[in-house]
Design goal:
Strand content of chain A: 15-25%
Largest sheet of chain A: 7 strands, mixed
Number of strands of chain A: 20
Distance between the termini of chain A: 68 Å
CATH class of the largest domain in chain A: Alpha Beta
Oligomer: homodimer
Largest interface: A-B, 51 and 52 residues
CATH architecture of the largest domain in chain A: 2-Layer Sandwich
Chain lengths: 548, 548
């Protein structure tokens, strides 16, 4: 009998990736990546006001390209034996759609309107709206619908972005019928059912980010939403009452897309999810380990048996969602709004003279800059750099989300060199990671170790050893370079019926770990002082920010 | 009758400069600059611990070179008509000397010992000793001998450096007979009387920086000094009881130096002074104007009629010295420990990739970097950069000296670019200037305008307009590019008897102002918010630092 295959589709911030795997072993057959053209050209974005938008066409073009490409790479006969596709995306990344579920940017008159496009997770134009939602949830006299979001609604999420758009763009407001998350829209497109009222919405994006909870039988009630702003009147009934975990099939591949991709209509398409959830599964998450996707930002997830939490709600994290990661476990979600982005910021800062004077060899130099800085920074003994930093360059996601917080560098003197500051920035990001682990512990959630995945986990032994030392926990680095896509392929195998559940798929298809960083006790001791400094500076700046 | 000439010698941080002027008009005949060779090579310094030492040979080689050079440039017959030389230097820059007044570094066995060299003003190795002196002055049960230093003794000054050296270098301690300030040693050398017990010590360096005051008839008493540390026993009697204002002659040029320089032994040599004091005179200081020497750091001086202050002592400044600038007026001294050095730090930071990868064209690029940043920074509207900084990269001199404070940058986000941060750094230095003016005002000292001199005053209209706007005061920029040396030449004319007093010399020899920056009211209003932020962040960091 011929082997069976599944496809994991992972829509990241910059590109979409497809991974073709053997459903029995998880063996990776082919992989393909496609960058979003409009995004690369910087279109529809304005970093100064944190506006980041992506065009739906970029997604569809990329989707077709990468699936076609992996099939081209695979041996003949593979396409016929693909049994399932699952999809993850960034999020909350919602878009305004018309009655047919078509994003407005794909309809006449809205082609170049950023408000008619997907509003990327890291778009922070809705800070004010998020604050209003949080305030209203505390004061409206009824249930606090943010309680499973740690009590603070984020500007990165569904309702804040929806409300912001309704306020600033009347045309979009008039033309929109409903709103859809990126990870729900792709399966809807692939199955040919984009009707906003009947497409299957995901538990983790369509659910959690929109304050859906089974405890209140769906989305927050109309009365609550209208109280935030009358503009929100009438949207609830054009959204959804149910959400689905990702072991559920959204449907089969539509004839149109089966033809486009070169696959059969027998292929099941799974309900989507946010990338870090599938990443955690791809990296074989287990209870009490914290799965940390370490890229431009981090997404941190701990899963615990639902029974253990009973009715306890964990404060100050981003989410507590039953079945968001593994159907029978409760996913506890946290993260850092900027991690690799902090290093990228510094690189960009130092690049200024090279770019401004258009020096020859600058591209080569820039490509080697971060490794060179890291090498120089590693030579400074722990705690001797003098400088200290706060990692809130993109606000703070966890603990206690606050998008108004900003980054800072302290302890500068005339001898503060680029490597010393780089070291301080690395330490700040890792201290930010420790604050999250400390917070989980303080809330009674045991964390016994870290599973690290994503670019930084693979590329920077310096930062990873620092993580182990600072957290005083073993840090396992996932072997697969595409854990998110691999997790998607595992879910695809479940929804296609190849495995009975995700746990079984993880065991059979997991690719294990390439390294484990163990904490070095002497280093852990040396980081204690700098970490206390970080916490003290953090408290100072936060208090100051609250006064402002 | 042939014109008469005087020579102003100005020993700066990096180089010595000689200026030959017409004593009648102040017309500049010739100028010459010589960089210190050992200093340029980075010898005897360690920026990481703020150790900055200069070799006495560097001074003597430079002195001979620049005087010879200006005479070579001048028309024949000029040398014979030079009537006086006066000298200013940085300070407090003291050195350990033997019985003959020779700096130990010029004696056998100490040639390469940094502790046997001049300890440059910006050397901060004696922070602990300065704190001990301040504490002792408050607690010893007698007079507070720091009261004319604003109540806080600085690590930049005489006794702190002396005590530090005695503690860390037993060989130097054994070999030293006395200590001499740089600006007292050069006139001593030129007149051939280097005997530590009889050479004329200056009011502003030998006096003020060593807690000399006429109110207590000289240096602090032995009992006080011994109480700081028994190591200080016996030094007082090998120092001095009297100090002299710079309108006094130290003596005539010695036969040896007359020959070396190509001048006559008729030339009078004036009592020396610190550079910023002569700079203020060279820039025609008048009561209620703040003279600001703006270079790597700033030195700020206001002169007021002694009668006006009566017995009032101004707190939190660096000095209140009768006759330190102009014999009949009281000099009130303040300053910023880093000004241009903050910009230089940022340039050095951004230079890292260029240097590390040895990119071609880097020297040209670096020479144009600060102007390019300034041009880009000027395009950001006031108060819109988001970022804010503290200028304490080299501690804080005024108000309320505190060498433990450090620089910081706040409000950073992923869009914080090099020009935005550069703007924030410029604003921080100018806000630091405003804090000093505000402090003078709060202490009842009227400041009606600024006289700016030094490199930044001449080179950066951007920073100078910012000064006028932030301070809400007119800022006059001295026309002479070497106000310190010009002031020295004015004093030389007085000590040589060409003018009866400094005021007359200033009027006759002053070269006036090249520009006056007037505050732009709309800008002044826009800077109010950012300045409040600066003060708030300053209070935060200072409080934090006090807790540490």
């Amino acid at each position: 009998m011929m082997s069976k295959f599944t496809i994991g589709l992972d829509f990241g911030t910059d590109s979409v990736r497809a991974l073709l795997v053997n459903a029995a072993t998880g063996g990776e057959i082919a992989c393909s990546v496609h960058g979003y053209a409009r995004w690369r050209a910087g279109k529809y974005c304005n970093a100064e006001v944190n506006q980041f938008r992506q065009h739906p066409e970029d997604y569809l073009i990329g989707l077709e390209a990468v699936v076609r490409d992996i099939l081209r790479q695979a041996p003949a006969g593979t396409a016929e034996n693909v049994i399932g596709i699952s999809v993850d995306t960034t999020g909350s990344t919602p878009v305004a759609v018309d009655r047919s579920g078509t994003p407005l940017a794909m309809t006449a008159g809205f082609e170049d309107n950023p408000d008619a496009m997907f509003i990327l997770w890291k778009d922070h134009t809705a800070i004010q709206e998020a604050e209003e939602i949080t305030r209203h949830a505390k004061n409206w006299g009824g249930k606090d619908f943010t309680r499973f979001e740690g009590g603070i609604y984020s500007s990165e999420w569904f309702w804040a972005k929806l409300l912001r758009t309704l306020r600033v763009d009347e045309k979009v407001r008039q033309a929109a019928f409903s709103w859809v998350e990126h990870c729900d829209w792709i399966p809807a497109v692939l199955t040919g059912n984009t009707d906003p009222l009947t497409m299957k919405r995901s538990r983790c994006a369509g659910g959690h980010k929109a304050m859906w909870h089974k405890a209140w039988h769906g989305l927050p009630p109309e009365a609550f939403l209208r109280g935030i702003d009358p503009l929100l009147t009438g949207w609830r009934e054009r959204l959804y009452d149910h959400t689905y975990t990702s072991d559920t099939a959204a449907g089969n591949l539509s004839p149109e897309w089966a033809e486009k991709l070169g696959l059969s209509t027998e292929v099941t398409v799974g309900v989507g999810a946010l990338d870090c959830h599938f990443g955690a599964v791809g990296a074989q998450i287990e209870p009490y380990l914290l799965s940390k996707v370490m890229g431009t930002s981090t997404c941190d997830i701990v899963v615990v048996p639902a029974a253990e939490l009973k009715d306890k709600v964990i404060k100050g994290i981003c989410g507590q969602v039953d079945g968001s990661v593994i159907p029978d476990l409760t996913g506890l979600e946290a993260g850092q709004s900027a991690f690799g982005d902090v290093y990228a910021w510094f690189k960009h800062l130092l690049a200024w003279p090279l770019e401004h004077f258009a020096l020859e060899g600058r591209e080569e130099a820039l490509s080697r800059l971060l490794p060179a800085l890291e090498q120089a920074a590693a030579k400074t003994p722990i705690g001797q750099s003098g400088a200290a930093a706060l990692d809130w360059f993109n606000g703070r996601r966890t603990p206690d989300a606050n998008q108004k917080l900003t980054g800072a560098i302290f302890g500068l003197n005339l001898a503060s060199s680029a490597p010393l500051i780089y070291r301080a920035l690395c330490e700040a990001t890792v201290f930010g990671a420790k604050r999250i682990v400390d917070h989980f512990m303080a809330e009674g959630v045991t964390v016994k170790g870290i599973i690290a995945l994503g670019g930084i986990a693979q590329k920077s032994p310096f930062v990873m050893q620092m993580c182990a030392d600072v957290l005083d926990l073993p840090v396992k680095v996932a072997k697969s370079e595409q854990s998110c896509a691999l997790g998607a392929a595992m879910f695809a195998a479940v929804t296609a019926g190849y495995y009975p559940d995700v746990e079984t798929a993880m065991k059979a298809m997991g690719s294990g770990f390439e390294t484990t960083y163990q904490p070095i006790p002497a280093n852990t001791a040396r980081y204690a002082g700098p970490y206390r400094n970080y916490c003290r500076y953090a408290a100072l700046v936060e208090r100051e920010n609250t006064i402002t």
